[in-house]
Amino acid sequence: MKKTVRFASAAMAATMMLSMTAMAGETFKIGGIGPISGGAAIYGQAVMNASQMAVDEINAAGGINGYQVEFSFQDDEHDAEKSVNAYNTLKDWGMQMLLGTVTSTPCIAVSAETANDNMFQLTPSGSAVESIAPENAFRVCFSDPAQGTKSAQYIGENALATKVAVIYNSSDVYSSGIYNNFATEAANQGFELVSAEAFTEDSKTDFSVQLQKAKDAGADLVFLPIYYTEASLILTQAAGMDYAPTFFGCDGLDGILTVEGFDTALAEGVMLLTPFAADASDEMTQNFVTAYKEAYTDVPNQFAADAYDGMYAIKAAAEKAGVTPDMEVSDICEAMKTAMTEITIDGLTGTGMTWTADGEPNKAPKAVVIKDGAYTAM
Predict the structure, then answer these.
(1) Cα distance between residue 3 and residue 17, in whole Å
(2) Do residue 265 and residue 286 come from a single domain?
């Protein structure tokens, strides 16, 4: 019988000092990796904060199987090589499980390392298919193909546009993966894909050509399966050429309202597929948002919610498996792999979440729109 775990965000009752002072060998050591500096820092910071918040709550409630949890987070600057270096640093620290990495390309590199070590890995937001290719790896978010398919379906089923253009990063597995499945599913929906223009990491500051082609093709919606920094430039440049289509993106756009120097008024009406809206009225979301604001003086984004759910998924699976800190990393992993397919969680990013043996989550998609400078549930 599957075990259903319900949890609610509460005021943080434990401090980081609790985990720092725990004796080695008497605690679970969970690592985290993601960008807390650089262009994708808002993602990593959110994951780091929410993970620590969950750990503090778990420790205050008695830990996992009666053992306290230590959490250590390393910066990878959204760089694959630096992410592997961060992984090795955490291994030296004594990491037994990994909640990471945050972004897809580093996650692919690190998952090869966790596979070699047979260490349990749960990425909150690494959405590329290859991010969880090994049998030891799972994810909280939707995969890129799922995001592309669900986005096309959402646009079509809600009649958001008749002509759609796409601007994507062909050198990024996250962006190109979403685009490929979006283009495939678009053929089944009631809109026409009139333009699909790519850019690369070496050409991600001037989008005038891509925007002009979308405008000339009559696109009334532009799909942006990209990260928020580039999206802010696209919206700024579109406004400069008097082009005002609807813009629709995925989880990579979560953070666009915090880009330094960006006129957030330009993001009004932007839609994105995301499993979390901070203004949702359910008690779990509001408790989480309140606690997060009190701890970090900021509104949590989807990445924070993914990480929070991820830490509680680790707790649920560890308790289902009955693992203890004195077990070998590989033995913990083998037990956790089975347990992940046997738990059901009601979390911030989905009700009745389950996982398949290939590491994919089952949950319903949601969308938000930016209204009056805030993300609003649709």
Answers:
(1) 32
(2) no
Q: 198 and 325 in one domain?
A: no
Tell the burial category of 278 from Cβ atoms under 10 Å away from its Cβ (0-12, 13-18, 19+): buried
> What pTM does this model have?
0.78
Mean pLDDT of 2-22: 39
Q: Where are the alpha helices (DSSP H) in 226-328?
A: 228-240, 283-296, 302-321
Q: Could you list the residue range(s) of the whole structural domain that residue 308 is in?
A: 3-141+281-363
* Cβ atoms < 10 Å from Cβ of 62: 10
Axis crossing angle, helix 208-216 with helix 228-240, rounded to the nearest 10: 60
Number of domains, the chain: 2
pLDDT digit string (tens) for 350-371? 999 999 999 999 987 778 899 9
Are 330 and 343 in the same domain?
yes
Encode pLDDT of 200-212 as tens digits: 988 999 999 999 9
d(CA 340, CA 369): 32
Cα dist. 201→4, 258, 270 in Å? Answer: 43, 21, 23
The secondary structure element, H or E, covering residue 27 is: strand 27-34
Say how many C-beta atoms besides its own lie within 10 A of residue 45's C-beta: 23
